[in-house]
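Appendix C: a fully annotated inverse folding record. The material below is reproduced so that readers can follow the format used throughout the book. The structure is listed first as tokens, followed by the designed sequence.
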């Protein structure tokens, strides 16, 4: 399956839509993550001049199970350590899959101005729930944080949306089994 995705990447269409170029980088990171037996999710950070700042990928099983190592979290770690001088409100975070509950919270705390995701995650995505009336259930401080960030689907060709979906879909079932195993402590003492 990964071979097929790698071949597809080599035959990807030329950039047409606004976010195609960043979609490609997200998908390359997602494929790399999947090939390393992690969740196939990738992310990049871009400044207001549409220049790349840094990239990251899911690494939850890079060593022993580390639940926080989602692509967005890794990306924000890099921002806050390597690029701390940048104005967060001017940055756009691109990610191949809609951010989860944990990452959405971290994004709000990070001060990032804009998030664009390739594939909506109806089962586990949280970021899209921050818009409009969905802010209402949030405590006031979080409503305030949520009002300062724009979260929207990226404008990309279907090729990239399909690619991003395939990257996560091919790894999700196996990953879930590994997570449940880690929760039970079966990996105690091993790395
Ligand atoms: Zn996440």
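Designed amino acids, in order:
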């Amino acid at each position: 399956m990964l071979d097929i995705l790698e071949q597809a990447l080599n035959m990807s269409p030329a950039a047409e839509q606004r976010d195609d170029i960043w979609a490609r980088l997200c998908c390359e990171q997602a494929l790399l993550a999947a090939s390393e037996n992690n969740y196939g999710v990738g992310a990049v950070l871009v400044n207001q001049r549409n220049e790349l700042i840094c990239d990251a990928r899911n690494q939850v099983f890079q060593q022993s199970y580390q639940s926080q190592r989602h692509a967005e979290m890794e990306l924000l770690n890099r921002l806050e350590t390597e690029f701390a001088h940048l104005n967060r409100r001017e940055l756009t975070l691109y990610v191949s899959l809609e951010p989860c509950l944990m990452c959405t919270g971290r994004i709000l705390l990070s001060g990032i101005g804009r998030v664009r995701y390739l594939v909506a995650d109806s089962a586990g995505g949280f970021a899209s729930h921050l818009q409009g009336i969905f802010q209402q259930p949030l405590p006031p401080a979080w409503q305030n944080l949520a009002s300062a960030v724009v979260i929207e689907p990226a404008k990309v060709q279907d090729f990239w949306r399909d690619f991003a979906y395939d990257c996560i879909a091919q790894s999700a079932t196996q990953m879930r089994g590994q997570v449940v195993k880690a929760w039970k402590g079966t990996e105690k003492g091993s790395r």
